[in-house]
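Methods — Computational structure assignment.
A single polypeptide chain was analysed. Its primary sequence is given first, followed by the predicted tertiary structure written as structure tokens.
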Amino acid sequence: MAMRPTRWLATVLCVVTIGTAAGCHRSDIYTTNSYYMARTSPADATALGCYSSGKAGWMTLFFGAPTSVNGVAGATAWGAPDLDVNAIGQSVIDFVKGYAYCRPDSSYRLLIGIGTSNSVADSKADDWLYNHGQAWATMVRNVAGVVNANWPSAAQVFGAYDFEPNWSSPWKANHWMTGYNATPGRPSLFANAAADGCPTQTANNGPCDNGWNQGWVWHLGWEIDAALPFPQIYATSGVNARQWQLIDLWATTAAGDGMFFFGTMSQLGACQQAGGCPGLDNTPHQAWDFLTSWLGSDPRTQQGVIDGMTDIRWNT
């Protein structure tokens, strides 16, 4: 499991004007791409790993919404044929093989999340979601074991969960996450999450969209032990970063358990592939700047340099 530090352990600070934290950026080697995995054949996954070999750091491979494939837990694979967890796991192993073989520098290492989401969760029974979360965690644990045994210097494997208030009720997302978290030996999980409709001015457990509130986002993104916050910071206004800073402020002042952010996710690449998404197309550095700066705007949410930057694209 990755260490979950507390904010006071961070010693390097970036305290600057909102949206202008560029002086604290790491090398572009550590600005990765994450992928919506619409192509998952052994050749495609291996080639994508090789293509990614010039990067190091945090990334996620997303496999779509949770589903069942012939009675086995799986994901929808973005319009490609649905994949069960066994095929998903093999695709990630193939990706790591390609990455390990093609790395130009043996010091490069990826931290890879294997991702699904709370999309369509409202249509699933509570027990089904809990069991799917457990099956996903078991797959992630098994893939992590293969990677640790064969390419430990090249990659480490985690889970990932793209939970978004607009996609389901908080109770449904919580059933899946509880199943994942309860699985023995499960790796930690990147919370590649959104804060749809959450407050932009107050930190009083105010409402977000679809029955969520700041406390629910904090609970799924941090309080659950598996979760490592790695939020979506898409809006070029910086409002997404402000929402997360206020969630963190509420957690610090009301729950006594402030968050620690492991990275930021942007979607510039996916936007460019889709023909544009004005106002929601931060570059990776802009997303990181916004979150770093908003956290630094209040001493109660200030943390050290955020480690990860990743930009989501389609693997099509």
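Note: Residues 7-13 have pLDDT under 50 and may be disordered.
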